[in-house]
Amino acid sequence: MVHRIEFTAHGGPEVLQYRAYAPVQPGPQQVRVRNQAIGLNFIDTYYRSGLYAPPALPSSLGTEGAGIVEAVGSAVERFQVGDRVAYATGPLGAYSELHVLPEDKLIRLPDSIGFEQAAAVLLKGLTVQYLLRQTYVLQGGETVLFHAAAGGVGSLACQWARALGVKVIGTVSSAEKADQALRLGAWATIDYSREDLVQRVLDLTEGRKCPVVYDGVGRDTWERSLDCVAPRGLLVSFGNASGAVTGVNLGVLSQKGSLYVTRPTLASYADTPEHLQAMADELFAMLESGQVQVEISQRFALRDAAEAQRALSARQTTGSTILLP
Ligand SMILES: NC(=O)c1ccc[n+]([C@@H]2O[C@H](COP(=O)([O-])OP(=O)(O)OC[C@H]3O[C@@H](n4cnc5c(N)ncnc54)[C@H](OP(=O)(O)O)[C@@H]3O)[C@@H](O)[C@H]2O)c1
Q1: Which of 101, 121, 176, 192 has the fewest CB atoms lying closer than 10 Å?
Q2: Distances (CA, A) of 318 to 17, 161, 298
């Protein structure tokens, strides 16, 4: 028997249960991975709470992990037993000692990337790749606003943006998080829990505002984010850490200067094995060059996943968090 995290009903972290289960054999195009490290992501809390719907209840959880191929289906072509792999876009079930997923969702790990590093960086790093290099193609020289700059995605975005020659104004909720964001490459920080966010952005940009604002906080920052976007600029609303944005009045986009808004997901950028691989190659090159480094600030045992989610939701984490089976 092996163990995984399951939940039978939506709710707070207390619904997560560490249970023994009998793993399935991989289907023809599937691979079974023995996880060595598992990534903790905010999206995991959405599936647990019910903000996002899992395919069925009871449900397993988690979409990111790294490990060793333990078994392959009869039609699998690209992987064999013993390969070092990672995944970030697979079906739910990464919070487990073993995960069975389609071959198409796997990335082969370069020797230079360890399992813990991979589990800490793949989902968040692929997200930063598409946010900075596809959703809005940063050229260098821009000043952009990135919310939750000391968080998992934010910590990587600060570094990647700096490497591109972009000035990041990062929002944070404490002095310690401000220090972290600045150390990782933010040009300036704003404590959005105390300061006037819009006024500070106006001051820092000499009234110009930002051509692009990256907002993974959602409900609590939506209005203020719109006020930080320059005319004809783009608001990238990519997450719901404070709750979902609802009831949007399109007219507000014209009032604030012909703004664009997008609500992207990693799944629709890493939508083919080729796109996934190309994005991962770029991420791995950034890691290998040292321009982006992964901060694993918290490690929890897999059985303590509820505690890990509590810390993430309570804004007590910085950088990446991993679960260890
Ligand atoms: N669309 C996509 O493809 C995609 C992919 C990956 C992640 N995401 C989104 O990106 C965001 C960051 O994900 P992550 O896993 O790296 O998490 P994270 O940034 O490590 O944690 C979330 C951070 O959001 C901030 N926050 C602001 N208001 C909050 C609230 N009411 N409750 C909790 N946190 C709040 C906190 O930073 P402060 O304390 O500094 O405010 C917190 O540390 C999430 O919204 C996630 O859903 C989207």
Answers
A1: 176
A2: 25, 18, 8
